[in-house]
């Protein structure tokens, strides 16, 4: 299947019956799948997943501060 309509024709009745859904959620789910594959194919074509981060960008190292303030202890009365 290469398009939204083809996948919807192939899967609509089965999804609707299997999951007891109304029409709108089934149509939305099919569209989400088509959009996810389109995004995946675009990203694979650009090979955006393969590039290491550029120098000078933030890294997620444990030594880097997270910007979250430490929890304070409750005040005693």
In short:
With 77 residues, this protein is mainly α. It contains 2 helices and no strands. The mean pLDDT is 77.
Q: How is this structure best described in words?
A:
The chain is mainly α and 77 residues long. Helix content is 52%, strand content 0%. Helix 1 (4-19) crosses helix 2.
Largest sheet: none
Binned, the helix content reads 40-55%
| Low-pLDDT stretches | none
Total strand segments:
0
Structural class computed from helices and strand pairing: mainly alpha
Radius of gyration (CA) equals 23 Å
Head-to-tail CA distance between termini: 68 Å
Which helices and strands occur, and which strands form pairs?
Elements: H1 4-19, H2 23-46
Helix pairs in contact: 1-2
Key attributes of the depicted protein:
77 residues, flat, mainly alpha, 2 helices
């Amino acid at each position: 299947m290469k398009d939204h309509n083809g996948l919807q024709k192939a899967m609509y009745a089965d999804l609707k019956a299997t999951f007891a859904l109304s029409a709108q959620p089934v149509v939305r789910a099919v569209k989400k799948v088509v959009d996810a594959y389109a995004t995946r194919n675009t990203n694979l074509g650009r090979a955006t997943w393969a590039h290491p981060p550029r120098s000078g960008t933030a890294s997620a190292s444990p030594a880097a501060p997270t910007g979250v303030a430490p929890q304070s202890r409750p005040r005693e009365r």
